Amino acid sequence: MIRVLLADDEAMIRAGVGAILASDTGIDVVAQAADGREAVDLARAHRPDVALLDIRMPRLDGLAAAEEIVRTLPGTAVAMLTTFSEDAYVARALGGGATGFLLKSGDPHELIAGVRAVADGAAFLSPRVARQVIDGLGARRLGRRSEARARVALLTPREREVLALVGAGLSNPEIAARLHLVEGTVKAYVSAVLDRLEVKNRVRAAVVAYEAGLVADDGDAAAG
Known about the structure:
Layout: E1 2-7, H1 11-22, E2 27-33, H2 36-46, E3 50-54, H3 62-72, E4 77-82, H4 87-95, E5 100-103, H5 108-119, E6 124-125, H6 130-141, H7 145-152, H8 157-167, H9 172-179, H10 183-197, H11 202-211
Parallel strand pairs: 1-2, 1-3, 3-4, 4-5, 5-6
Helix pairs in contact: 2-3, 6-11, 7-11, 8-10, 8-11, 9-10
Organism: Streptomyces silvensis
Domain Response regulatory: 3-119
InterPro entries: CheY-like_superfamily, NreC/VraR/RcsB-like_REC, Sig_transdc_resp-reg_C-effctor, Sig_transdc_resp-reg_receiver, Tscrpt_reg_LuxR_C, WalR-like
């Protein structure tokens, strides 16, 4: 069971997101907070597997709350939940230790997949904000297209397929279904891809996939 802390200053948002998460029998929302300070306090009290935090909250904003939770509770993964996808928010959230960035307007299945991914120790970036990461963090930290293509050339054809689907925002179960593989095999491929590319998580791998042209702008994996 994945134990989740949900923080948002709007009660209706908390109710809606909570209902979506409750539809998955493997997820339990153990606490809800209306501001960032309460989120930090409840995280310390409940020690959830995942803290799902809105960015704009009173008393302490979600970004500052995320940084404090990451610093003081290493067993709790943090994902940001927001309507905003500006570069500065994405950069600060990921730089502060958050491993997920989800949009409130995203698909409910995407929300559940994101919570499951970060709980599993992986990173999850909503496909709708992937372009912000590519244009911002990607260009600065991982180099331009020629460098990314050179790195991708080190991968096997199957590893390139997996990387393209990671870049398109698919979870391990979705990749397994797309490529007709068992999930354990997909996890092994993802781990091998991260090692070969010398990146720490799926978000950085997705940046390489975009820079190398493996993923189209609309989020679909490019052929080949």
